[in-house]
């Protein structure tokens, strides 16, 4: 820090120049985040000073959080869901597993996750002292329920299913996982960080949320497909006891108990989520998801025309293309200022189609992809 400060305008200039190094979302096909809705940005700014680490001072903001949880609960078939807004899918997954662990104390607990699970579960396991067992996937890259069942032992405390996998956008058979969880008396967490605000708006119906008896908790991120601001993920529990398992007493605060991992916690992104949910409604999200899925179909068709097949038939707005040498193709795209990622197993070129991808941009991208692949 310098001894003397500089004028506000100069600071903003400085920031603006540095920000130019960041990539504008329109060139990005590798992110599960997007430009927040303008109303979300406005709401965020209006709640910028709020801190739900001390809800006694912010009862209005606390009410907004309760409304957001209720709106998500009703969308995901648990109108009386209990939960709160975390900093992201990682925070929600950690806390879900912490509740599962606290409700069923074992000396050497393990949880069973699909091989396709996000790396946030590795963090959770490390923090919580839980062993991870990875269940195999079937040919469509969904977790194989038989593989899950085989891994269960007397130290298993929870199963995890993914609704919208990070790499391929696939949806695990949550109903079958729930059947296994119920028959073994296990906690079932669904990671719908990405899919939670996509799947309810697809034409096809998938059992993935609290409608499925046996689902104990669910992660859903408004800062991904919800067009809200970062940080906004929701952790939802079917039963209040699960939230209770996270309680820590806060003796010197006016409120006596905290269930969150974070202490100081912004209300800004919670207000942003409230604003965008209220404004868009289910029909607004249906429209956004339909537009993304239309782009996915367009890519699929174009790819077929180039003789390229997707790894799996796209289920959500992620499409993974079986090109030769995907890393090389990704770096050639990068030279043309396109940001894509590649998957690990099987290797492919991964495109996440977020609301910021317009038809015009997509056509430009596909033209470049054709050239790079040498297809006329
Ligand atoms: N669960 C699933 C299924 C996810 O896909 C992710 C993140 C998480 C949990 C963790 O969420 P947080 O990152 O909010 O803690 N998925 C993206 C990924 O790792 C996150 C991301 C977003 C990465 C934007 C890059 C990016 O530009 O790929």
Written account of the structure:
This protein has 376 residues and is α/β, with parallel strands linked by helices. It has 2 domains: 8-36 and 281-373, Aspartate Aminotransferase, domain 1, CATH 3.90.1150.10; 38-277, Type I PLP-dependent aspartate aminotransferase-like (Major domain) (Aspartate Aminotransferase, domain 2). It has 11 helices and 12 strands. The chain has helices at residues 8-19, 38-46, 59-75, 89-103, 120-128, 145-151, 174-184, 240-244, 268-305, 326-335, 359-373, and strands at residues 82-86, 110-114, 131-135, 156-162, 187-191, 217-220, 233-237, 248-249, 257-258, 318-321, 341-343, 348-352. It has a 7-stranded mixed sheet with strand order 1-7-6-5-4-2-3, sandwiched between helices. A 3-stranded antiparallel sheet has the order 10-12-11. Helix 2 (38-46) packs antiparallel against helix 9 (268-305), helix 3 (59-75) packs parallel to helix 9 (268-305) and helix 4 runs parallel beside helix 5 (120-128). The longest helix has 38 residues, at 268-305. It is globular, with a radius of gyration of 22 Å. Ligand 0PR is lined by residues 31-33, 88-90, 93, 118, 120, 162, 166, 191, 193-194, 221, 233.
What is the 3D shape? globular
Mean pLDDT, to the nearest integer, reads 97
Instruction: Predict the CATH topology of the largest domain.
Output: Aspartate Aminotransferase, domain 2
Taking strands numbered 1, 2, ... along the chain, how are they ordered across the largest sheet? 1-7-6-5-4-2-3
- CATH H level, superfamily name of the largest domain: Type I PLP-dependent aspartate aminotransferase-like (Major domain)
Beta-strand residue percentage: 5-15%
Alpha-beta content class: alpha/beta
Small-molecule binders here are: ligand 0PR
> What is the CATH architecture descriptor of the largest domain?
3-Layer(aba) Sandwich
In DSSP terms (H or I, runs of 4 or more residues), the helix count works out at: 11
Radius of gyration in whole Å, from Cα? Answer: 22 Å
